Amino acid sequence: MDFLSIDNILFAIGGQKVSVLEFFTTISGLTCVFFASRGRSINFWVGYFYTALLFFMFMQKHLYSSMLLQPVSLVFAIFGHYRWTHPKQGEEKNRQNELRVTVLTKNRRMLHIVLVIIFGAVWGFVLSRLGLIFPDTFPPASLPFLDATITMCILTAQYLSAQKKLECWAAWLVVNATNLTQFLLVGLIFMPVVCLGYIVFAIMGIKTWIKEMKANE
Fold this sequence. Notes:
The protein is mainly alpha-helical.
C-alpha cells in the first residue's frame, strides 16, 4: 500500500522529506499522549492505531527492536485499558469507577532502572548480531544498543502507565529525550520536532496526575 510506504512523501522540513506514514503516525501519537496526560482512557483506542503505524514505520527504517516492540505494546495497551476501566476494590478514584494514580516504592524504582540497563545491553547485543546471522532477511540494524535501551525504557513506561503509576511520565521523558537523537541519526526529521510535543504533554501529565493523586488521598 502506498500509504504505508516511507517513500510516499507529503512535505519536506529543512531539506528532509516527511512521509505520509510518518505524519499520521505523529498525529496519532500526539493525540494518544494528550489524552493520557489528561487521564482519559480514550487514549488507548487511539494508541491501538498508533501502534500499527509505528510497526510499519520502524520496519522500513530497519529499527528492528522498535518494530518488534509494537506487538508487545499492543498487549500492554489492552492490559492498561482494562486496568484503567476495571480497578480492583480500593483502587478507584473518589466516587468514580476508574483506576486512581499511585506511586512506586523506592525499591521498585531502583529495580526498574537496573532491569532497563541489563536487558537493554543484552537485547542490544542480540540486535547487533541479527544482520550477521540472517543477512538476507535483516539488513544491519541501525543503532542497536541505543534502539534496545529505548525499547526497554518504553516497555517500562508502558507497564507503569498501565498501572497508572506517576513515575511513568519520568520514563516517557527519558524515552522522548533519547528518541530525539535516534530519529535524527536515522533521518527522521519531523518526529524529533514532535518529540518536543511529547515532552510538553509528559510535563502536563505529571502535573495533572499529581493533582489527581492528591485529590484522592
